[in-house]
Amino acid sequence: MDFTLLKPKIQEFIDRQLGVPISQLALQKNPFPEITWIAIINQIEAKTKAKEKLPTWFHTKNIIYPSKIAVEQTSSEKTAEYKSSLIEGNSLIDLTGGFGVDDYYFAKKMGSVTHCEINSELSEIVSHNCNQLGVVNMECIAGDSLVTLKRLDTKWDWIYIDPSRRNDAKGKVFMLNDCLPNVPENLEYYFEKSDAILIKTAPLLDLTAGLSELKNVKTIHIVALENEVKELLWELHKDYQGEITIKTVNLTKDKTDIFEFEFNGDAHEANYSLPKRYLFEPNSAVMKSGGFKEVATTYSLDKLHKHSHLYTSNLLIDFPGRIFEIQESIPFAKKELKTHLENSKQNITTRNFPDTVEKIRKKWKIKDGGNSYCFFTTNMKNDKIVLLCTKLK
Fold first, then answer.
1. pTM as predicted
2. DSSP assignment of 93-159, as one string?
């Protein structure tokens, strides 16, 4: 790690250039010959990215950043804080430490945190940043985490793992045994070192596929940030054989929406009806969970169609997703669309509908935006319909 970056004049320069396009920076002459221009540009790019995602780092002096890609791939502070709410105890070891955002929040909950990172330069960066951030209970160890586990010979309260896909796994169906470290292969050994394991995976991993590779899964947390699923968290406990809970979490500026149910539980078949007064659209975490019958049962809602995943009721309830008041339901027919939608401004959503949003906009000359919302979908009679709505939440 080049500590030259921490010279006050260089840090001041970096702060002045935040947000400047890289194409523009690339044309500038390096005003600091003692360090490479690429290294300075990388700091500008990465710190710009950290402003919204990692405000604690952004507002702390003399932080050194890894590559912009590493900052993009790390957890946001909001999702890291949620992860920290799942653990308790005295000791945690992170086998894939990365930039250390998760460990910063784990360190607020645990007596000690051990950050393992195979990239020695990144490990050094995290160690330096810990000092700047005032973290005193984190140890950074560079090298293979499996070797570190064997060498330390410790029983940990928690093991945390964020496996990354191997380069030769591109194009393949995403499976955990295509990642490093290979969690399924090492799981028995991990359980010798801890009775509780938390695994973070990308949202692309299919829940059933993940369960086929893991065992002793107690809870799967599907975590979304502002309605975009960011990560899956697999909570494993040694010898656990009970029901698996699916917990969907959508973190927003104003609140946290949580919906949970038992995986493969005995949810009743949903009731179906034509559109009523209100329309309910589940958030992205709920959609990822596949708990569509459970949503209908839990909230006493009717579905519009088996495959539409839109719900309706005459009662206005609190719901983990968007809520609309239906102003009108019209058939998907040329005359009605021409009268109601042609040359209008609408927010369009399609659910269980053959045409894309782009095709609909082009055909009926509908502009994007405004305060009107319309859903192109299919009802319980298999009729194509359009719901004209006002957004309530």
1. 0.93
2. EETT-TT-HHHHHHHHHSSEEEEEES-HHHHHHHHHHHHHHT--SEEEEES-HHHHHHHH---BSEE
